[in-house]
Automatic annotation (TrEMBL):
This is AAA family ATPase. It comes from the Bacteria. Gene3D superfamilies: P-loop containing nucleotide triphosphate hydrolases. The lineage of its organism: Bacteria, Bacillati, Actinomycetota, Actinomycetes, Mycobacteriales. Residues 44-171 form the ORC1/DEAH AAA+ ATPase domain. It holds the Pfam family AAA_22.
Length: 277
């Protein structure tokens, strides 16, 4: 099916994929703002908090910012699932930095802190602790992050922290019991998605990367995809691919509003909860 779609539309590869190198990403205003803040947080070894709805591009922005940092001078520690709790985070940090985690909690905390400091001081590589799905962090896990940032009487931190999560992360961190961590945040950004014009540019950009320079989506189709996907890249990708399939099946040369509406209907149906028996 993929080969048929590529051949039908004169594409060299399928567009709207997720595996693009950072240098090939479409730079919307929202993306650029997030990347700039994450980059600043890395440079200052601070805490950066990026929030936004599912599919808005938080992880992509973090990947782009981290890629811009000099790899030889940084060590990425990526935690995709923070539900492992405070101990799991400490364990992951120590393991990622090449040590064997202590079995005892009392020893594991200073071990993680010392490992982070040693990576920067002895090896000259600043650790970047990037935690995805940050809204799933428990209060204990967030407090654990605060303890890790306690270094040299708060004069500096040996590592940078990036927290990515849905809007509830910001709400959780605003609670009084987490005020100490909230006050340590260096920069933050709430991502909202692309404008209508940016969605049009995003679609053209992905088509060009796939070998198609001529227009393929009509303006009406793009507007409908943007409105339905609310400018969120992941939703736009899904709708655009579905619209391409509908267009190919109908034997049309252009993705028009009808094909886009078919994609919207299919996508909305797929995301509806199953009826209760």
């Amino acid at each position: 099916m993929l080969d048929k779609i590529q051949s039908y539309f004169g594409l060299t590869t399928m567009p709207f994929g997720r595996g693009l190198a950072p240098g090939m990403l479409f730079r919307s205003g929202d993306h650029a703002q997030a990347v700039a803040r994450i980059g600043y947080g890395i440079a200052t070894r601070g805490i950066t908090v990026i929030t936004g709805e599912v599919g808005v591009g938080k992880t992509v922005a973090a990947r782009a910012a981290i890629e811009r940092a000099e790899p030889a001078r940084h060590h990425l520690i990526y935690i995709p699932d923070p539900t492992v709790g405070a101990r799991g985070i400490y364990h992951h940090i120590v393991s990622a930095l090449g040590a064997r985690p202590s079995f005892h909690n009392a020893a594991l905390v200073p071990q993680a802190r010392d490992a982070l400091a040693a990576e920067a001081a002895e090896r000259g590589r600043v650790p970047i602790l990037c935690i995805d799905e940050g809204h799933l962090l428990s209060h204990d896990a967030l407090e654990a992050l605060r303890l890790l940032t306690n270094h040299r009487l708060d004069t500096e931190s040996p590592f940078a922290t990036i927290l990515l999560g849905q809007p509830t992360l910001a709400t959780k961190m605003a609670l009084g019991i987490l005020a100490a961590l909230e006050q340590r945040i260096t920069v933050r950004r709430t991502m909202t998605g692309m404008t209508n014009e940016e969605t049009a540019g995003y679609i053209r950009h992905h088509l060009q990367l796939a070998g198609r320079s001529d227009p393929l989506f009509t303006d009406d189709a793009i507007s409908l995809i943007h409105d339905s996907g609310r400018g969120k890249p992941r939703a736009v990708n899904r709708l655009a691919i579905s619209a391409l399939i509908a267009t190919c099946a109908a034997g049309k040369n252009l993705v028009d509003e009808t094909s886009a509406r078919s994609a919207v209907t299919e996508t909305n149906h797929d995301t509806q909860p199953a009826p209760t028996p």
